[in-house]
Protein 1
Amino acid sequence: MKRMNLRQMTLYSVILGIVAPAIFISYYLFIDRYNRELDQRVRTQMHSYVILLAKSSAVSLWNVDGPVAQQLVDAVMENPEVIRVVLKNENKAIFAQGEKPERRIGTILSAEQPVIFSGETIGSVSIEVTSDPMVRNILLDFQKLAIAIFLQLICSVALLLFIFERRLVRPLLALQANTALLADGILDQPLSWHREDELGRLASSLDQMRTKLAVLIAERDKLNMDLELRVEERTNTLNLANSELSQALEQLQLSQKELLRKEKLASLGAMVAGVAHELNTPLGICVTVISTLREKVDEINAEMAQGLKKSSMVAFLHDFEQSTDILARNVSRAAELVTRFKQVSIDRASSVRRPFLLRDVISEVLYVNSPEYQKKQHRIMVDVPDDILLESYPGELGQVLGNLVDNAMLHGFDQIVVGEIWIRARQLDAEWIELQVQDSGAGIPSESIDRIFDPFFTTKLGRGGSGLGLHIIYSIVSTVLGGEIHVASIVGVGSTFTLKLPRQAPLAQA
């Protein structure tokens, strides 16, 4: 919508300010005069006619003189406002009447009066009148008045517009042109104004503002130049600092990766040491049995040279049978331990995605780490169904499980001699499983529970904790296994780590 300019607004304001009140006053005067004329010229005369006719027609109605009564009616009908006159006798029959139906236009008024003769009602007379002649006269008068008002309005509007144009519109337009120069930034051209009224004072204020703006802009330009120099210096300093920070961050990431690798190797090294210690027992027994058998063979060979007795031979065979049985049990135990360790180490080293039973992986991890766990008096209980089949990364899952158990023994059972760890699993649906590791340890303080998965956060710094165990768990669960891990803990009661894992891990490099 196009906005009105100053001249148009002035014109509309003058017209509305003069014409609208004139129209309203004219309408009010017309209605007032119409009501007054209607009362004076129509209603009053109508009542006069009906009273006069009722008195004058009483004798003719009493004498049943119809022609005289009709003459009286016709005399009243000569009035232009009267359109119908009816004279009735006492039986309500029409005695005389007059009517002009062609003049039945405009507002119709009626009146009725009883005819009384010698104190007795002998009939009635009714008159109907129209306001049309009176309205035509009023309209004619108002036409003349409207023409006079219209001419007066034209003169008034023209005079006011002339005054507004000379005293307000033109000065405001000139002032607008000067302010446009200020808006364009032209501040060296003063505002020349020679009036002492409000517009003159406004122009003087604008000129003072122009002068102050020029000073402020000069100061601003100087400040901007200084600010640009300072920003450039700060930018160079920040760029240098960012470069140093980038190098430090890169070095930190490399250090973090190296620490993660060493943490994994340390876990694997501890498992190797435990397996080696566990292998010493069956292998030592085997060496002892073999040495004993060698002595028995030497003895039987010496007796054979002198003459072998049956009792010696029976005793040798009995000892040989027991020795081979001991050798078979211990070699089988060592072979099982090596096989399980080999599977665990292959899974952790190769990161191959393959199908496996969850309970088998848990059993292998616990069996391989059993030498370390047996050094403590804590109990580990497993409640995992035999039919939970996963297609995932068993090495990473075993590392997560081992780290959770180690974390419980290192932190949860710090001041506890005998503790319990429960490993539970259940199928949530066809796509997801839930794995829980719960301990009866000391619990995690509320101020630390939101930070336990952060790298290098530990409550045992310098006392066997590196702060990477749970961070490794979180990284493996969320990236490699494609699942989620949450923790809930109550101080003095224990902690529960809940893993929500997909039955099919995402196809990615572990």
Protein 2
Amino acid sequence: MILYLHGFASCGDSTKTRLLKAHFGEAEVLSPDLPVEPDEAMAFLRRLIGQHDVSLLIGSSLGGFYATALSSEYALDAVLINPSVHPFRTLAPYVGTNTFWCSGESFEWESDYLLQLARIAERMRLPDARLLVLLQTGDELLDYTVAEAVYGDYEVIVEAGGNHRFENLGEYLERIEVFYGDA
């Protein structure tokens, strides 16, 4: 089973999720809405991994950060899509009221959440598991070169152009399927 981890202010029912479910099958992709608070999100994800036969993590942006931590903890292979490497820094400007892209509902992003992310990062090490990292140079929110340097010992694909949403993920589904099948 694939566990998909969405990014900041996103949700479990997104364009990426629909693409993954259409390609791999509805029952093969678990894509929950994640709690906003990082410690709660990690506890929630650990419970899901304990309850389901997860064999691949796919994480986008903040979900890529969580996927890296969980990949290390559980020795699970992961696909990271424009992953956030230092979310405790890059999400600092969002402290306050924000809006979920999918529902339009507002939520609070607290400064304590940045400290939680920093603590997760302090404990995190790069996994022994396999990683496939998909980056786009046109990511307007995260500097792709930071992730490229951090994940340089893994399989990294850098595509010119694009954006933070990695909107052409459909073009990479067969590559992800090969990676998943090689596990």
Protein 3
Amino acid sequence: MEPDRPSNPWSRKRRATQRHGYKGPRHSFNEMFGNLTEDNIYLDVDTKRAALIASPFVVSLVSHTGGKAFFWGSGTIIECEDVDGAYLCTVLTSASLLRSPSESNAIADDIKIDVCFSDGKLFEGHVFTYDFHYNFATIKIKSDVAMPTASVRRLDDSISIDRSKESFQLQPHSELFHLCPGEAVVAIGRYYKKPYYIMAASGKFSLASFEFDCRELLTVNCKISKCGIGGPLINYHGEVIGVNFYDKLCTPFLPINLVSKCLEQFKAYGKFCRPRLGVEMINLYSASLGMLEKIIEKVPNILKGVLVEKVTKGSPAESAGLFFGDVIVQCDNIIVRSLLELHDVIFDKVGKSVELAVMREGGAHLKLDMMVEETGPDEFNRWPLPEEIKIQRARLVN
């Protein structure tokens, strides 16, 4: 008989996965994503540290119409202003919180919003802005005391495809957070029931695809539940880099760059001016390996840029002469290394013409003039609705 081995004080016996607070079917609002997978339960210390940095400015939100709750989500306090001795806080979340169960691009009738903090303190939320195209909203709450606000960090999503063995180099210091495939991130949310736990799911930035209309979304492989919709995606410094949405296989997120641009527009003009080009594009490095090989064969010196995947008939892109396989490298004489950089330029050009520098098959360098049109309500992105909202819609229609 073998002698008893001393127990290792650093090891911890794994428990069977539990879903505390889970009372509904899988993928429902009732499910805490902190308990979805073993990876979410047994978080590493760095993930916990990042989540705890973010937790003071992460809230839960519940929207009501007709006296009944119809959407549960999470949000981020991004501003807190002293207004006549009171504090007016701005909460960033998903516009899904506001969507009418009967009409996709309208606010629910007689909407009421509860905003809840970790201590259970409840505030009445008031709709300030919303954008059903990019599916984000801001909610205002009034407080007697100042609330902690998020540290926001814009993304740099540019990566070179230089084939040189010596091409790797450290990124220079930048105000932007450099996001490349494999970068570790954390999706955060707050549960809307007692004890109002912070929820966290660690993961990595991924090039995985999804079926959302919004082509500006990026993807991480974190696993969240629906009550995490609208919550922040953070880096390991606790800085907010995006707004999370829900998918069964991954977590699509809207980069904070686009949200910041939209809010800047609203502050300046009192409205959103969403650019429309009529073209589907991806970062050059996101193309398939086979596609990249063919591009480099035809345009040997290209390292970064935005690849044109599809041009819509009758669009500004078609009128400008853009084709499938073109790589955009400049916009109005500003170097464009990635999609986010291109959007940063064109967001301020709605209703104006821009000059694109394009590299085309055979190494041709072209200058094309393109009008930046405004996206109309009939062209807004469609967003997948949670099953619970679909059921409510069906009841209203029938």
Protein 4
Amino acid sequence: MTVTAVPAQHGPDAVAEQLGDVTGFVLEAPGWPTLYFSGDNSETAVVARVARRFPDVEIALVCAGAARVARLDDALLTLDAARTLEVAGLWPAATVVPIHVDDWAHFSQPRHDLREAVRDAPGRDRIVLLEKGASTRLPRASAALLHA
């Protein structure tokens, strides 16, 4: 297995320096789907650079929930639903799994809101919102993953 650290940016340029560096990851292994983990990234331009380098991502775990904090002028610190759909567009065949969407007061678009926001959107069939504590079979993942 190969694990590659890839760029991530926790907020727009105006606040990114105040938050420090964050990192995403791409995992690749023969016979397994390529997996992207966004890290606490809010910037789709950063994900687009990753997508150009790793066009065969089949599963994208993206930190969503539209995290915001007042001390940073409510800047978007993780993906919101619209940006989650943009990420899905970067890998048209990938299953996109929004994670890290609940449990903190700074999430402005928690699970229910995220679900409603993507309900009628193109590409919604590739967005899988996990339920806490439940195992979920991903619909587009390779057979190797599903039968491991």
